[in-house]
Write a structure and sequence with these properties.
Rossmann fold, five-stranded mixed β-sheet
Length: about 140
């Protein structure tokens, strides 16, 4: 993946990392997530303006103080990307993950995953047309 942005002001991003426990391994996992997300930020050519971390938090996203702070921050700042290691950092529940993705989308932010170097695009309303190759694969 190469940087997707040219000269001029770089889009803003925040990073979110989470570890469910309090052991040294859990803290190390959160630190590893942060490094992976910083690497992704460099690939995307974005400026990371804040990092949010939850340690010993396995509850639903809105129950986590770091994630609540991330939502509050994105409500008041023009954030283009929320970077996280993988979708499981947001929620293990797919419905909750989709709710989070939609909430961030309404604020103008997309989620980018460091594990796959993928940006999740949300389309609300009419879905974009599928390329012919995809239509055949879906049949």
């Amino acid at each position: 993946m190469t940087s997707t942005h040219s000269a001029g002001p770089r889009p803003k991003a925040v990073i979110y990392a989470r570890a469910a426990g309090t052991t040294r391994e859990d803290s190390g996992a959160a630190a590893t997530q942060l490094v992976a997300c910083r690497t992704l930020a460099a690939l995307l050519g974005v400026e990371v303006c804040r990092e949010f971390v939850d340690i010993n938090e396995s509850s639903a996203p809105l129950g986590r103080p770091g994630f609540r702070a991330l939502l509050a921050f994105t409500a008041g700042h023009p954030i283009r990307y929320v970077l996280c290691a993988d979708l499981a950092q947001l929620s293990a529940d797919h419905v909750t993950s989709m709710e989070v993705l939609l909430r961030l989308h309404k604020r103008g932010a997309q989620v980018a995953l460091a594990a796959t170097e993928a940006v999740i695009e949300i389309h609300v309303g009419n879905p974009p047309a599928m390329p012919e190759d995809d239509k055949e694969a879906a049949a």
